[in-house]
Amino acid sequence: MYDAGKIVLGLAVFVGVSAFPIWYNIAAGKGAYAVQLEPPPNGTKQCVAETANGYMRAEHMHILDEWRNMVVRDGKRPKVTVDGVHYDYSLSKTCMNCHSNKEKFCDSCHTPAGVAPACWDCHVAPEDK
Amino acid sequence: MRHDRRAFLGNAAAGAMVVTSGAALTSCADTGHYEPGKGGTRWAMVVDLRKCAEHEDCRACTQACHKTHNVPDFEGDPLHEIKWIWKEPKFDHVFPSFENHPLPAHIRKKPVLVLCNHCDNPPCVRVCPTKATWRREDGIVMMDWHRCIGCRYCVVACPYGSRSFNWVNPRPYVKEMTPDFPTRMKGVVEKCTLCEKRLSQNLLPACVEACPHGALAFGNLEDPNSEVAKIVATEFTIRRKPDLGTEPEVYYVV
């Protein structure tokens, strides 16, 4: 191989530059983040589905999709029972009734993960009532 | 058998036609066109213009509806206006094929209350490319705002002007927020849903409940004992632009 030294050096520089965001964040201590979630201010202890093994973490957006399709497309308005209390299939009235501080719950996961659900363009979040 | 490119393409085209034609034909036919007498539920509204036109300045129904559904108020700006139920200023604009001259005094130059007609054969549903609007089994022409991509085909297709487009973010123009019901956002179409949410709670539509003059009736046209069925069976009623074949479910007693 001719010019092996130059090629290897060139590749090393290329990888180094293109991976800049990764090592920069690691160096700046932002490589990993811990999420601080506020428990529901109304003192409830259970969610609409189990939270073990990150089930709600992984599935909450699918639960919301299912609720939305049920209510808007199928025209049915069933109830979900949590700890003996019946709740509507509703984003604003149910999820946000317990998780009433959107900044300290939904957003504290979504913002670092770069997720910005468009729901709040229409659905009324607790603070902008 | 000879296998050349020409024969292959010919066969492929014929095959594709056979496979897709059935689906294409049924999707054209499947607008949920209703056949009367089928039974079940067919929600309908009757506007008694004799009572409504007497109270030209009354807007009780519009106010109740717009508050329930967080409809923005652009203070009459026709470019941005969002309308679910409203009064059209002239009778012959609402019923253009009604050419009797002169019209009786109690309707001539009087405003006419209009809303989405929840047609049995809705042209808006036919053109919607995402099925964001569709006709439910009970006759409500429903809107799914989550699916609306803002193409406005439905706005153009509706012969009654019942659909409004959000050219700007409507939030700042909602005077009094009802947190139970979401607003809409810039880039989606909206219209009357016959208060399907209230119907599911066994309540009358907000406009019917709010009318102080008893000019609005609502019910199941397939049920001969319902108020609307009785009115339609005993009074002479008209519907908007019947010649278009859309089969409106809003009837007017004049």
Question: What's a concise summary of this model?
Answer:
The complex is a heterodimer of chains A (129) and B (254). By secondary structure, chain A is mainly alpha-helical. Chain A is 45% helix and 6% strand.
What does this structure look like?
The complex is a heterodimer of chains A (129) and B (254). Chain A is mainly alpha-helical. Chain A folds into two domains: 32 residues; 87 residues, no CATH class. Helices cover 45% and strands 6% of the residues of chain A. In chain A, strands 1-2 form a two-stranded antiparallel ribbon. Chain A is elongated. Chain B is an alpha+beta fold and 254 residues long. Chain B has a single domain, classed as Alpha-Beta Plaits (2-Layer Sandwich), CATH 3.30.70. Chain B is 28% helix and 14% strand. In chain B, strand 4 and strand 5 form a beta hairpin. The radius of gyration of chain B is 21 Å and the shape is globular. The relative contact order of chain B is 0.22. About 2% of the residues of chain B have low confidence. The chains are: A mainly alpha (129), B alpha+beta (254).
**Distance N to C terminus of chain A:** 69 Å
Quaternary assembly: heterodimer
Structural class of chain A: mainly alpha
For the CA atoms, what is the radius of gyration of chain B?
21 Å
What is the strand arrangement across the widest sheet of chain A? Answer: 1-2
